[in-house]
Amino acid sequence: MTTSALTWLLLKKQSRFVVKRAGAEFNTEPGNLTNKNTFTSSSLVNKSVVLAAGPKGKGVKLTQPSGRVVKLTRGAARAARTVSGAVRPQQRRVALARMSAILRAQRPVKATTFKRTGIRATRK
């Protein structure tokens, strides 16, 4: 039995990050990209990156397992290339989805004008 498997056996039921709701088990570890309580998703057992919003709400901050922090503020394509190279192949799609969600949330909201139609539009 490897050390990561042994660590998982000890942590899977009694970690402080485990949340049980409606018959499902979730995990709130900072490096857990899927928030599922599984061996492959756990950042305590496997080396994983942590994705967070960048400083001042611009870009993405990538914390690697070695402790190195990379700030990605030069665009989505460059950030996607960096993130996909930094994560395990199993977690690549999830990491790219998390990065896209962070960048999408940082976009400014377009002001839409409401155009009235119908009978009330002509009345003043």
From TrEMBL:
Q: Does the keyword tRNA-binding apply?
A: no
Superkingdom of the organism of origin: Eukaryota
- Pfam families of this UniProt entry? Ribosomal_L28e
Note whether Ribonucleoprotein occurs among the keywords.
yes
Q: What Gene3D superfamilies does the entry give?
A: 3.30.390.110
TM region(s), chain numbering: none
Residue span(s) of domain Ribosomal eL28/Mak16: 6-104
Q: Name one GO biological process term.
A: translation
GO molecular function: any one? structural constituent of ribosome
Entry GO terms, CC: ribonucleoprotein complex; ribosome
Keywords, comma-separated and alphabetical: Ribonucleoprotein, Ribosomal protein
Family statement drawn from the similarity comment of this UniProt entry: Belongs to the eukaryotic ribosomal protein eL28 family.
User: What protein am I looking at?
Assistant: Ribosomal eL28/Mak16 domain-containing protein
The species this protein was found in: Syncephalis pseudoplumigaleata
